[in-house]
Amino acid sequence: QVQLVESGGGLVQAGGSLRLSCVASGRTFSRYVMGWFRQAPGQEREFVAAISRSGGSTLYADSVKGRFTISRDNAKSTVYLRMDSLKPEDTAVYFCAGDENVIFSDYASPSKYDYWGQGTQVTVSS
Fold first, then answer.
1. Residues ≥6 apart with Cβ < 8 Å to 63
2. pLDDT tens-digit series, residues 6-23
3. How many helices (H) and strands (E) does the chain have?
């Protein structure tokens, strides 16, 4: 069992930046693939980015590629999402997720992650 707590969301103007953090507790963080997903009102939860256990491999949704950066610090049991050049369409609740068994081909599938945080709101004004 692992508990995930996100922070760092807020209100930002278009073109601005935010860094989200997700701190894990419970079991060995380095065993988990970590992902970020987001959900806007009335829409399905969508994949944003994921990172392998060691941090050596990452995957991004096309909509955020080149603007967002996922990273992790296993010593701090924390995964980050740096978001630059934010757009109004990035407005959503952002969730971090983790799983021990997800494979690379399933990184973008929310159903493959067992553990989820409560989410943090990101609002980008135009």
1. 89
2. 999 999 999 999 999 999
3. 0, 11
